[in-house]
Amino acid sequence: MQSFSNNLFADADSDYNTADYVIFGVPFDGTTSFKAGTRDAPQAVRLASYNIETFLPFYNLEMTEIAVHDFGDMFCDCLPENVAAQVEDTVKEITGDSKIPVMLGGEHSVTIGAVRAVKPDWYVVCDAHLDLQDEYRGSDFNHDCVTARVFEVTKNIVIIGARSGCREEFEFARENFHLYTADDVKERGIKAVLDEVGKLICDAKLYLSIDADAIDCCLTPGLGTPEPFGLTPSDVRDVIRKFAKNAVGFDYVEVLPNDSGQTAMAAAHLTREFIAGSYVHRN
User: What is the overall mean pLDDT for the chain?
Assistant: First the structure.
């Protein structure tokens, strides 16, 4: 069992034994390749969550009706492969107790351990980057290797919002994944994209990962690897509303809280959207 601090997400005050959802933070950015500081994101997202009304009108639901526990932040190891193992152990414990893990990064490499723990049928990710390097800067657990490591767990991968990667990565993704670039979303509309993906996935179990940089950096600039011409927060919300019912695990990663708080605020809202969307379909 890992050790955790005790600063809580708003309304996540249920006892672990009675909770249906368990939030935990992974404040790790050890493989950051541009702007460091995503280790501060879990606490920034929690702080933002206290500015949000408890009522979600889309679901006609109060967050206080949902049993949510917050472990706090993991005390992370220094090496990314060890952090992945810490996350894997934690997620196995949570899912073993029939609860849904909700992870706040930290950099995107932390997703590797969670996916290894739940072994989903599908992996759905919103991300500006393809993250398909087999090794980067001396580590195959670098944040730029996430999708490559996930591909070792499941071959069923959907990427929404990508717009950055080398030629070889895009060629591989188009051949092996269901890839919807940010341009595809703009041209076709998010509803058409999600309808198509929904027909692929049907009722299968999936892991849903939201990299904050999927959203256009001109809208949410607090990012470690910012990219313009991306998705909108509403696009990502639509993804979450579509697939929360299928998800056996969720994360929101790569928030860098160096802006005026808009990126962490979007993350807090969208994390609540996931919990609420999952809850209404389970009850």
Answer: 95
